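ENTRY TYPE: paired fold submission
RECORD: A
CONTENT: sequence, then structure tokens
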Amino acid sequence: MQGAQAVDVNSQALMLAKQNACLGCHAIDKKIVGPSFKSVAMKYQGTPNAQIFIQNKIQKGGSGSWGVVPMPANHKLSNGDLVVLTAWILRGAPSSNH
């Protein structure tokens, strides 16, 4: 992705993260309740099927990957929104101005 298309996807993903309360527990570059998006990207870098794994984690919730605090399920996101959001997380949650 390049130029305006990348900015649009990054903006869309950040908007999805805000609208679906992701930022209540996660930040882009620091741990809150859950890991930062950059930490998630680093942990799963080069891992086959990482995007599907993260999509399932978001949609179904769970615990154990980052400690004992469970992540609540988020059933509201469409499959398309999950793809946009997880791809952005796995890129390290770049901001729109990069």
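RECORD: B
CONTENT: sequence, then structure tokens
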Amino acid sequence: MAHLSKNRDRLLARVRRIAGQMAAIEKAIAGDAGCSVVLHQVAGARGAINGLMDELIEDHVRAHVASPGLSDAERAAGAEELIEAVRRYAK
């Protein structure tokens, strides 16, 4: 996916920050941190994952649904891919 290649460094930086947040959650739980600390860390990680998903959805829509050079079949396929991913994410 060429559109991901253009944003690769930025996306990887986001994923690495999320991985760091997950490691901090693990460390907090292992270190018997208070539940409110862990809850706040989980909420932050969830927000970061939601932000990543938002960015990926936007990139997908622009490249595989709304791009003027696409055929109707390509747009339909892009829309179906997005619908499937959103349904899976929403579970």
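NOTES ON RECORD B: The two ends are 25 Å apart (CA to CA). The chain has a mean pLDDT of 94.
STATUS: closed
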